[in-house]
Amino acid sequence: MRDNAAILITGGAGFIGCHVVKRFVKNYPQYKIINLDALTYAGNLENLIEIEDADNYQFVKGDINDAAFIDELFDTHKFEAVIHLAAESHVDRSITDPLAFVRTNVMGTLNLLNAFKRIWENDFEGKLFYHISTDEVYGTLGETGLFTEETSYAPNSPYSASKASSDHFVRAYGETYKMPFVMSNCSNNYGPNQFPEKLIPLFINNIIHNKPLPVYGDGNYTRDWLYVIDHAAAIDLIFHNGRKGETYNIGGFNEWKNIDLVKLLCKQMDEKLGRDPGTSEDLITYVKDRPGHDLRYAIDAAKINEELGWEPSVTFEQGLKLTIDWYLENREWLEHVTSGDYQNYYKKQYN
Ligand code: NAD
Ligand code: TYD
Predict the structure, then answer these.
(1) Could you give the domains of the chain?
(2) Residue with the nearest Cα to atom 22 of ligand 2?
(3) pTM (2 decimals)?
(4) CA 15 to centroid of ligand 2, rounded, Å
């Protein structure tokens, strides 16, 4: 990407987006980074305090569903690249409100694609639309096997169906309009700044407050966990060195059954909080299963490893410790985000 390029990062006040924004603002003073975020319940500008005054950074509050606004923003800044993370991201919410996911994840992505195409279609050279997606588009694995870039799409939740749809549109714009794009599909992230509706931060918050830990079904569901800082590093590599028109799978080489992960988390939390061993495990409560719950996700990350030399930098035990430390040191952040809308959602989901 050329010096002085204006780069649009969407969803930068959310969990993964804030780490991507921080990395780009700090490492690439030659770019102008514009962070566009609607600040839904999941977006929080407190995530970006350390870079908010940087010269190469600007925050814009706005909705990717507003096509006229998006067009205007592209006219103003002439973004040469987009890193698109803004999305509705929580599977459980998608089960109760699928349309919200279609609006933001499908229509919102189309608005960005259209704006990007409109200003560059006669001059795509050196431009890039980078779409951030998820391994959940591949559906579920059985007890064995891994998702590769060639695995067929078979989304099972409204969330993954909306992400799959947006992936298809990105690829279609690449084919039809020759729009330069790259895409990555990542496994479950964890780490600082994740909103406490997802498994790990929800359970950390509940352990702090001695609340039940609601494990869905029998807890024998498997996810492949990646530390968010390692995802941001992978995005940086793909953005700069990934081949145009390609998809890269990103994963942690790190599969855990939910119940084993929760037990490890309980053990580490007891140690950190100086509680007797077993205290947190007593909070585990098996609850009604998620409908359409995918049994297992696991990524084959050989392509990004071999082509771009990427690999995770921390083990899961290290990453989980760092994550717990962050949440314990940032209780004010947790308190701020666990008020208002989130409380209403929590009552609806778990009562
Ligand atoms: P998040 O929910 O923490 O953050 C999403 C951000 O998007 C929030 O800041 C929110 O305010 C913003 N946003 C939502 N709707 C918007 C709209 N209409 N206009 C503008 N901004 C809007 O999500 P996350 O976990 O950081 O995920 C980021 C991206 O990475 C998503 O595209 C998600 O599908 C993908 N992803 C997430 C994971 C994961 O484990 N969290 C794994 C793989 C891929
Ligand atoms: P989640 O963090 O919602 O991510 P995803 O659904 O995108 O994988 O959930 C991770 C796993 O944890 C998933 O198998 C569902 C399970 N889970 C629970 O058992 N209890 C909970 O309260 C939540 C939020 C998730």
Answers:
(1) 6-190+225-253+295-315 (3.40.50.720)
(2) 214
(3) 0.97
(4) 16
Measuring from atom 4 of ligand 2, which residue has the nearest CA? 198
What is the Cα–Cα distance from 184 to 274, expressed in whole angstroms?
Answer: 40
Active site residue 332: no
Nearest 10 degrees: Cα torsion 272, 275, 281, 285: -100
**Alpha carbon 183 to its chain's center:** 13
Contacts (Cβ under 8 Å, ≥6 apart) of 277: 267, 270
From 37, 63, 80, 135, active-site residue? 135
- From the CA of 45, which ligand is nearest? 1
- Find the ligand nearest to 134 CA: 1
Spatial neighbors of 7 by CB under 8 A, at least 6 apart, are 1, 24, 31, 32, 33, 34, 79, 80, 81, 82, 83
User: Is the Cβ atom of 14 under 6 angstroms away from ligand 1?
Assistant: yes
What pLDDT, in 10s, does the model give residues 154-197? 999 999 999 999 999 999 999 999 999 999 999 999 999 999 99
- For residue 258, the ligand 2 atom closest to its alpha carbon is 12
